[in-house]
Structures are given as structure tokens and as C-alpha cells.
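Minutes, methods subgroup
Present: GH (chair), OT, SY

1. OT presented the first of two proteins processed in the latest run. Sequence and C-alpha cells recorded below as shown on screen.
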Amino acid sequence: MLFGEEHVRRYVETDGAEGHAWQGTTVLILTTTGRKSGEPRSTPLIYQRHGDDLLVVASKGGADAPPQWYLNLQAHPEVQVQVLGERFTARARTAEPAEKAELWPIMTATWPAYDSYQQKTERDIPVVVLTPVR
């Protein structure tokens, strides 16, 4: 099973032929700019489409601290996204509470474990909206 850096490498090399389908769901590659290093950081993330936007969840498996990629996009909201062979720039933002109420069920339908991740932590796990820059 692909995971971490190997997942990113195989996904990028094969335009998602390897790594887009993962454990019964779909994955994109999100590249953020390191908030301290300024270097690009790529992460495979489960996603869903919502209109023209893409949704991802900053769960880190229900850890009390948010994932590094989420901290990076808070500092630098312009990100690079790859879905299969399509690569584009997007603007990332955290869904507002009322919006999250609509979006969370979309994400738990694709990865039910998100609900158990939320139960493991007092941190409000964010849904991140990725809007392509046209």
C-alpha cells in the first residue's frame, strides 16, 4: 500500500495511475510552501469535489496537533494541486463553521473514520476548501 513520500513519488510519476485510487477512496497531491523552510512540501490527501472546489480534511488521524501541511497553507494559502494528470494552482481556506456543517458529511461519506478522528481530539478538525485559481 502506498503511503507518504513513496505515495507522492509514484502518483506524480504516473499522473495518478498509481495512488489516485487508495483504500476505496480517491487521493490528490497537495503541495504547500513550508512556513519555515520556504520549500515545497507534498502530501497525499483524500479529497472530494464540491462544485468547482476540492475538499480535504486536516485530520492527522485525530491527533491533538494539526498536520504540518495545514499549518503551511495557513501561512501560504496559495497551493499546488495534482488530481490524476491535472496540475493547477489553488487558494486554500478553512471552511467556516456553518459551511463545515454542510461539507463534513461529504467527507465522512468518503472516509467514515473522520468521525472517529474527531472524537479522539478536542481540536476542531477543519475541512479545507481548495479553489482553483483561474
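2. SY then presented the second protein from the same run.
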Amino acid sequence: MTLLIISPDYASHLLPLATLGTAWQAAGERVVVATGSATASIVDSFGFERVHLQLGRGSNPGIIKAEDQPKGEDDALRGFFAATRLGMVETLAFQASARKNDLLWDPVDTARAVQRVVDEVKPDRVIVDHLAFSARLALLAHGTPYADVVLGHPSALPVGDEVYGYPPSWPRAFEPDAASLAALRALCDDVSASFTAEWNAALDGLDASHLRSENAFAEHGELLLFNYPRELHEPARTALLPAHEFIGSAVRSEAADDEVDAWIASSEEPFVYVSFGSFLSVRGDVLARVLAALASLRIRVAVAIGSADRAELGDLPADWLVREFLPQVTLLAHAAAAVNHGGNNSVTESMTYGLPLLVLPFSTDQFAGAAAIEREGFGESLAPNTATVDELRAALERVLALREPRLTALGESLRTTPGRERAHAALA
């Protein structure tokens, strides 16, 4: 049997998808990954076959920098970073406007490339990133069944009266005014209509006009796999979902890192893991405030600074582990708490180890993810642009003191039955 995994050329997307593929690999089955060249080394590290497939202009092998992106994509990334400094609504509005140009990249030719891959590989099963819209469009027109993996918060698939790009919930620290929210909703409605028209035009170009959609953002595969714990999802929203499975988390195995292993073993004192992911690490101003708050608590810290300017962070304690990139899963397995941006990988991996969180969301589904952590009592959330060092310190003290049996039970459940096993069983 052959499993085909289709992923954008982004490490944060490929890593959880590839982790799911290890269940098929363990069963002695063939696994082929269709993705771009920037993440080829990740495919190699899993021991999978790779076929080249470019699904968009940009790429991200692990840490994304505007200067490493192709012309046009670099300016868009700088615009996004600038928008995060203005606030929640401004960032979501920027991202909504950008979707008019970046979600369906050269859709007909890209879809035909996907179809050629399917014809060459001849897979028995296909799993694809939900946000790889051109790939899902291709599979739909090709008549190829597939499992649709929602790697972000489940709100990436709108249900009921939701509209893509408008968060169904956000944490208490964000208080946008009604007029701004109404304008954002109107923009998201407009983008949804525009995207649907583009989707349908591409179907026409692929001789699949009979499959035209009323809302392309609500399209999905035969089975939805949510890389998210059911325990964090509101039951009322779960009832609105089409055929699905919550697989919990896609926690990967990481290669041994002698420096990290030695640092963990060097002290029995608790530590906090800090990371804003591959994109938002550029917000060194926020990271500097978080680290100042932690320094005042006299607790050990492991921090992945990513693309942040090291000079912006000031003098850090000598016993801290500070690197551009760190093995996140390894450190989360030993940490006492974590600070992150609410990215779905960071949230679900932290839940796997029962870690309380301080979440500082900047964009997209991070607000909904942070709201879920806050709602369930698994941590706290603050607005990254306005939270002071004192406010961060106080929140960190509360998070470190948190003892929630349901969080411990969730971690035990996610470790007992990993996401890869749940995904394999769902597709078996």
C-alpha cells in the first residue's frame, strides 16, 4: 500500500503531516511526500520518498525571514509583520486582504501538477494539508478521495454562520470595538466570495464545472482529521462538523541533541520553554519583555529566539539555554510551563505533556487557540503588544502555580494514543 502526503513547502506544515506518515511506515507501507525543495531534508530525515511539487511562491525550512523569500513574497511578509504591531483586527484584516492573491497560486497549472503526481505515484491513500487549496482543488477535479488534515485550529473549516478569517472567539485581553469587528467581518465575507469565484474559475479550467462551490472555504475531503484535541473543542461546534476525527496531536520524534540533553540534566530546577514559532519570532520586542519577566522570577529558561535580533533581547542569564532553533518536543517533555504565540503545533504539543501555557497570540487562528486554553483553565493569554513586564510576570506566576487534573489527564491521553495512530486507524 502507498500513502501520498501532499504538503506546502513549510516546515511547520510538513512536520506534523510527516509524523502522521510514520504510522504507515511502521506498518511496512510505502510513504511518498509531495512538497518543495526547501523542506527536502525534512522528508529525508523521516526516510520517505519525495516527489517535487511547488504549491506556492514562498517556503520555510524552519525559520522564516523576509529576505529569504522571492520578490513580492518578501514585501508581503514585511507587511504582515508590521500589521502584528498594530493589533488583532489590523493583523486579521491584512491577512484577509492578502488571501485575495496568495491562497490559489497559479491554480490550474498547479492543480495539473498535483494530478500528474497522483497519476505517477498511484497512491492507495492520500492525506493533504487543508490549507493546500490548489492541491485539494486538483484532487476534487481528479476524482481522487483524500483525507483532509486541518493542522491549525478547527475554525480553519468554517461551520454554521462562521466566515473564514474571522475568529469565532478570542481571549479576554483583546477588546476590539464593534465597528472594527463589523468592518473585519465584511472584509472576510468579501474575500470568501472572491476566493469562491476564483476556485470555481479554476474548476472550469480543469473541466470540472459540475463541481462548482457556493463557499470554497467550506469545501473539504471525505474525512477531516483535526490535529487538535477533542477536549479543547466546544461540543456545540463539534456537532456542526462533517465526518471527522480529532487526532489530538502529531508529536514527532526528534534526533538527540547533546547540548540540550546536557542542559536538561544539569539541574533539577524547573524551567520554562519559550518560542514564538518560525514566523512570529521576529517580534523581538515582545520576546524581550517575556524574558525580562522570566528573569525576575529567577527560573531557568530555554528560549528559541528564531529570527529575533539577539541584541534586542539584552543580557540573559548564563544558565539559560538560548539558541536560534531548539528541539521543541524534547524540551516540552521536561518543562514546567511554556510561553508561545498560540500556533497549533505549539499548543497541541504542549497539551501532550500536560503543560500550562501563557499564550500571546498575534494572528489567524492563534486567537481561537488562546481562547480555548483560557476557557478550559489550562493557562492564560495576554495581548502581546500591550502586556507589560509586570503583567507578564504575574501571569507567569499564576501559570507556574496552576495544578489542573484535567490538563494532566489530557496529556496522558495524548501520549497513550498518539495522533499518528489515531489517523492510521481512521483511514484503515
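Chair's summary of item 2: The chain has a mean pLDDT of 94.
Next meeting: continue with the remaining queue.
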